[in-house]
Design a protein that fits this description.
heterodimer, A: mainly alpha, ABC transporter involved in vitamin B12 uptake, BtuC, two-stranded antiparallel sheet, two-stranded antiparallel ribbon, 74% helix, 2% strand, globular, B: alpha/beta, Rossmann fold, 2 domains, six-stranded mixed beta sheet, 30% helix
């Protein structure tokens, strides 16, 4: 028989927590969990020091307000990505809703114009969702193809012209009304982001989105109706893209079919991904998307204020996206082994 | 790798053991300088392949343990054994698909160390895997000469390709059109494509892994003829199969494997199905199982399956009483998991009914899925916990609560405190060890991951639990814990349908065992009739495909 004291060892941190958790791992997980937040804060502080106009209420509110539509669309896009989908049609939907509402605003009340514009987006989202889930066509292909259809429809609405609503300043109220010195466009964005954040983190639907994106077959076998969940994310994405388009049309009282389009689609996607939401689904959070989108905005704003060549913005952005996606892929590799 | 001398019995009149020594210094020389097999070499009988002390582990699991055997040139050599006995692994090692951990292999008397199939192919050894690998979009002829097309400056010479194909097919006696797309062919014809591909590369040794498993009877007979002709023409065939009749009919030599070891190698002429089965049977390991508490004979039927037909399942009827553990035995591909998935509605049924307790149908509509089964009180632990069970990157809590989230939510908002309490309780009951509810499922051990899936299903308090390979890839201690869980669930009145490829588990746990073969239930045993001999005999089948 062995000596009794040989088996008794004082519990170490490792033995309590489990030997898997080495300090280096904790550091890695910590870095991964905070993700883009630390670089964001670093950039924020650097800009505050380097440029005196940067850290002013006017400039900061201006940055946020300029990103209002991008943040609204990216918030819904986060839901799509978490649930394992992808929506490449948001740019086109943004344009369609913009021109539809701008055109209706010429002849009807602003409220009708706004509601019909958003309804367009919901319908687009519904079509996307039905094709991608029940039609079993890859969401990337579905939304890519749909983006051409939607762009075409937007051009039909405008007949290729710029729609100008200067005669209907009431249309601008949705975006340009000030409340507590902040524009309504910003307030709407805050409300949408909070609502979608709540949906993702606190509701059963949000849980099912994570489940569907993390392991679709496992979710199905656990009784989750993954197709309905994914359909919901596409409808919300279409609606959010339309809301963004309507707000921006109202803001400038004009719209054309070439607004937004692929540039917007990829800016939105970049913001989500830079924030750390996985393009493979099942992982991500709303605050990440907010930080990711604002981080990209800071790069642009900062180089403006510092008078840097704007071409460097794009190079920096591209490198940052690669780093963000790369760190996600590498950490997933670690997870698998 | 260990430097052990080659066992004597491997080398009758061939290269002596002393010739083996040089290869230890240069393990990379395999298939590098020899551009092609030496077809001109003698056709006289002798050792084509000699294996000495081949061992292989996957993770911590021993798949092969010091396997030594000799394969004669021009013979048909069968490898036979239960699920997991190591026969496919051995076939893959011979053909270079996986490298051995240790041990030596001689090909034509020369030591070889294959690191990739292409090295084996260069030496005339080709594997035809169970999952065929034709490229569907290419033509039959293009498939046969894939990677070896006649070409001029990178442009494929189609005419020459077809002529070469016609010549090769004629030589093999195959009636195949070289110009049609390979994707449209039946399985048996795709197999011919693979055989031609092997012959086109001057294969001298072809390893066939379960070649007849997916074939109809007439195709099986044709394939047997092809195999015999190959051997008659001097090609060595290594046949991995679990159809005993087929083996006895075709093979010259039979090697029986059990738990990764060679039991014996014998001439097929002296063997019978009974003697093969006896050789495959292991001594029952003294695993500990909880005491069986049989359900009352008048216990109500909790799950009733009637004439169920679904992909891989034909016309199966079975009942499971409350408190009863019914085991489903059978070989891989016999339709056990398919049956489980059909009952759970993970597959659509093409016929039959599944009812729970008081004859409530599990699902009313044809397209109803697992959700309907869960609502009817049927739960399932799927076969592969990583692919079908877990959300690896998500927290333990979400993994457990996902199937019963409606119980922990008000107006679709998750009541997180109630959720945490319920998860804590069920995890305590099953003794799941995790750093916390917030840690990712991937950080848990295999046994605890499996318990998470039990926890997920038990939170729904089902009447029927289907457990598909619940102890696969978990350590011994966790196995015992899972046995205890299953036994106590049954004792509390749950009906349990247990699928396991480990026969001892079925013997140790099940009150009744159903044996499946080719999608049907072919035998039923209870009480003392549940023996390894009986189950294996029924699983391998008395009437073989090949015999007819």
């Amino acid at each position: 028989m062995s000596q009794p004291q040989a088996t008794q060892e004082p519990p170490t941190l490792a033995s309590v927590v489990g030997s898997r958790w080495q300090p280096r791992d904790l550091l890695m997980t910590g870095a991964r969990k905070s993700g883009i937040l630390l670089p964001f804060l670093a950039l924020f502080i650097i800009l505050s020091i380097a440029s005196s106009p940067f850290f002013s209420k006017v400039n900061l509110l201006d940055i946020v307000d300029q990103q209002a539509s991008t943040l609204i669309i990216a918030a819904a896009g986060t839901l799509v990505l978490v649930a394992g989908g992808l929506d490449l049609s948001v740019g086109a939907t943004y344009a369609l809703a913009g021109v539809v509402s701008a055109k209706l605003a010429l002849t009807m009340s602003p409220l009708v114009a706004i509601l019909v514009g958003i309804a367009c987006g919901l319908v687009v989202g519904l079509v996307n969702g039905v094709i991608a889930t029940f039609g079993r066509i890859n969401p990337l292909i579905t939304t890519l193809a749909m983006s051409f259809v939607i762009s075409g429809l937007a051009s039909l609405v405008t007949s290729g012209n710029l729609i100008i609503d200067y005669s209907k300043p009431g249309f601008a109220d949705i975006a340009r009304t000030q409340f507590l010195t902040v524009y309504t466009s910003t307030w709407i964005m805050v409300a949408v982001v909070l609502a979608f954040g709540f949906l993702l983190s606190r509701t059963t639907a949000g849980r099912y989105m994570y489940a569907a994106g993390s392991n679709a077959e496992a979710a199905r076998l656990a009784g989750v109706r993954i197709q309905w969940i994914r359909l919901l994310t596409f409808v919300l994405s279409g609606g959010a893209a339309a809301l963004g388009g309507v707000i921006d049309s109202a803001r400038v009282l004009s719209a054309q079919a070439s607004n937004g389009q692929t540039t917007l689609t990829f800016t939105v996607l970049a913001g989500i991904v830079v924030g750390g939401t996985s393009i493979l689904g099942g992982d991500g959070a709303m605050w990440r998307t907010v930080v990711g989108v604002l981080f990209i905005a800071l790069i642009g704003n900062g180089s403006d204020l510092l008078g840097l060549n704007p071409l460097y913005d794009q190079i920096a952005l591209g490198v940052i996206i690669l780093l963000a996606v790369g760190s996600d892929a590498w950490s997933r590799l670690r997870l698998r082994t | 790798m260990p430097d052990q001398p080659v066992p004597d019995q491997t080398l009758p009149g061939q290269s002596g053991p002393d010739q083996l020594e040089p290869d230890q210094s240069g393990p990379d020389q395999a298939g590098q300088d020899q551009a092609g097999p030496d077809r001109a070499g003698d056709r006289t009988p002798g050792a084509h392949v000699v294996l000495a002390d081949i061992s292989k582990s996957f993770g911590g699991v021993r798949a092969l343990e010091a396997v030594s055997l000799q394969i004669e040139r021009g013979s048909i050599h069968a490898l036979v054994g239960e699920n997991g006995a190591g026969k496919s692994t051995l076939g893959k090692i011979i053909s270079g698909a996986i490298p051995p951990d240790s041990g030596r292999m001689l090909l034509n008397g020369q030591p070889v160390h294959f690191h990739a199939p292409r090295e084996a192919i260069a030496r005339g050894v080709v594997l035809i895997a169970q999952e065929l690998s034709v490229v569907p979009a290419l033509s039959v002829a293009e498939n046969v000469f894939l990677g070896d097309e006649p070409r001029t400056a990178g442009v494929v010479r189609r005419g020459r390709l077809q002529r070469r194909f016609a010549e090769l097919a004629g030589r093999a006696g195959f009636d195949l059109n070289g110009t049609v797309n390979a994707g449209g062919l039946r399985t048996a014809e795709q197999q011919k494509v693979e055989i031609l591909r092997a012959l086109g590369r001057n294969a001298e040794l072809i390893v066939m892994d379960e070649p007849t498993a997916a074939l109809s009877r007439p195709d099986v007979r044709k394939l047997h003829e092809i195999i015999r002709n190959l051997a008659a023409a001097g090609t060595t065939v290594v046949l991995v199969s679990h159809f005993l009749g087929e083996i006895l009919e075709l093979a010259d030599q039979v090697t029986v494997l059990r738990d990764g070891r060679v039991v014996r190698t014998e001439a097929a002429a002296g063997l019978s199905e009974e003697s093969l089965l006896a050789a495959m049977l292991g001594t029952t390991l003294a695993s500990t199982f909880p005491v069986k508490r049989y359900a009352a004979t008048d216990a109500p039927v909790a799950l009733s399956v009637k004439q169920l037909t679904a992909p891989g399942v034909s016309n199966v009827s079975l009942d499971v009483r409350a408190g009863e553990i019914v085991g489903l035995a059978g070989l891989i591909g016999a339709g056990r998991s398919e049956l489980a998935r059909a009952v759970y509605r993970a597959h659509r049924l093409s016929g039959g009914t599944v009812t729970v307790a008081d004859s409530r149908p599990v699902a009313r509509r044809r397209f109803d899925g697992p959700r309907a089964a869960l609502q009817a009180g049927v739960a399932m632990i799927p076969e592969s916990r990583k692919e079908q069970g877990l959300f690896l990157g998500r927290p333990v809590r979400e993994n457990v609560s996902v199937a019963s989230l409606d119980d922990f939510s008000r107006a679709t908002m998750v009541a997180r405190r109630a959720e945490r309490r319920a998860v804590e309780q069920i995890m305590g009951r099953l003794e799941v060890r995790a750093a916390g509810q917030g840690s990712a499922a991937s950080t848990l051990s295999g046994g605890n991951q499996q318990k998470l899936l039990f926890a997920r299903m038990l939170l729904r308090s089902p009447q029927v639990l289907i457990a598909d390979e619940p102890t696969r890839g978990v350590d011994v201690g966790a196995k015992r814990a899972i046995y205890d869980i299953l036994a106590s669930l049954a004792a509390d009145g749950m009906a349990v349908l247990l699928i396991s490829s480990e026969i001892e588990e079925l013997i140790g746990l099940a009150h009744r065992v159903l044996v499946m073969r080719a999608g049907r239930v072919v035998a039923e045993y209870d009480g003392d009739d549940i023996t390894e001999e009986a189950i294996l005999g029924a699983a391998f089948g008395a009437a073989e495909k090949g015999v007819s």
